[in-house]
Amino acid sequence: MTTFDPVQRAAAFGGAMASAPLRLVDDLTAPARIGLTKDVRRAIGITAAPAPPTMNPEEAFLAPDGVARLVHADLPTMLIGGLSALLLQMLHPLAMAGVAEHSSYQSDPLGRLRRTADFVGTTTFGTVTEAHKAIAQVHRVHRRVKGVSPDGRAYSAADPELVTFIHVAEMSSFLESARRFGPRPLSPSQCDQYYEEVAPVAMALGAAWVPRSAAETESYFARIRPELYAGPQARQARDWLRRGVAKRPEERAVYSVLLAGSISILPRWARRELGLSAPVSLDLLVDTVSVIPLTRVISAGLRWVTAGGQRTMDMPPSTPTT
Predict the structure, then answer these.
(1) What pTM value is reported for the model?
(2) Are 211 and 219 in contact (CB under 8 A)?
(3) For residues 84 and 173, is the Cβ–Cβ distance under 8 A?
(4) 60 SS3 class
């Protein structure tokens, strides 16, 4: 004979009643959200629908239940982290020379963004075969990207040390954005696991070594920091990025908030070098009172538009970072 626990029944009923309004809002706003999702994706240069993720652990390039997928699945924090990574990468004179002399970032910024998003998406959510195909394409591009930087040094995009720098700048920015603006907290062990999971991507691209923990990442930046500075090419790219590519007023407003959020997660030394830093006390006040709360609001709105209201409302808030 089946028995019923009245406490369990009450809890189940209460949960159903609590979720009913969320489901109703979700259902009523679904048509508008679909249209807004298309607008958001079109505004950042992504027109095709995302491919379904590979869930078979034996076929996936990265673990389906790993932290990397958790971080990379959130569009708002990836946008913020991507902008922050671009700013950070500008400080490497050889990496910046390659971008300035071989990329169409000013004439076709959305194309470059789309290609980067495709690569990260494929290596994160795709099969081993799909990931290796995307990596091979990057190798073909890297072989053509070489020259002499303004400081007189030869550079090549295939240089293992440059591959390491680009990888660390991107992954550390994605992770810091997820920690500060993401929909859920990430523990220190999850942060270490993230670096461990994404390391094979950089190694496959030609890196000889990459950090595999948060501590190793911090040590890496401490070691390479004397080599980083904002030269003329970096300052030009910084100014271009600050102007943005959005055309509609509402898009420009959102972009301004996302850019401010991306600056807030940069290491303080990088903000100073790029000329994006006020005195420390003022930076902290602006970030705490204005930038961080507003960026979280915009991120939550974008998350609701692109992922659905109910799923994100049930997630715990992100953990503040120092």
Answers:
(1) 0.79
(2) yes
(3) yes
(4) strand
Residue 39 has pLDDT above 70, yes or no: no
Give the span between the Cα atoms of 133 and 118, in whole angstroms. 12
Label residue 275 left, alpha or beta by phi (over 0 means left) and psi (-120 to 50 means alpha). left
End-to-end CA distance of the chain: 56
> What is the residue whose two structure tokens read 């109910």?
310
Q: Could you tell me the pLDDT band of residue 72, with boundaries at 50, 70 and 90? A: very high
Tell me how far apart the alpha carbons of residues 125 and 10 are, in angstroms, rounded to a whole number: 40
Tell me the C-alpha to C-alpha distance, in Å, between residue 221 and each of 88, 91, 99, 146, 189. Answer: 11, 12, 21, 24, 20
Alpha helices in 209-320 (DSSP H): 214-224, 232-243, 249-264, 268-273, 280-286, 292-307, 309-313
Q: For position 297, what pLDDT does the model report?
A: 83
DSSP letters spanning 241-255: HHH-S--SHHHHHHH
- Residue-wise pLDDT for 182-223, tens only, equals 999 999 999 999 999 999 999 999 999 999 999 999 999 999
Confidence of residue 95 (pLDDT cuts 50, 70, 90): very high
CB 294 within 8 A of CB 284: no
Residue 29 has pLDDT above 50, yes or no: no
3 state DSSP class of 154: strand
Q: What is the DSSP letter of 152?
A: S
Between CA 10 and CA 170 the distance in angstroms is 47
Which of 4-18, 157-171, 283-297, 299-313 ranks highest by mean pLDDT?
A: 157-171
Residue 270 sits at the vertex; the CA angle it makes with 264 and 276, to the nearest 5 degrees, is 60
Question: What's the Cα-to-Cα distance from 28 to each of 17, 118, 246, 249, 299, rounded to whole Å?
Answer: 17, 31, 29, 27, 21
Reported residue count of the chain is: 322
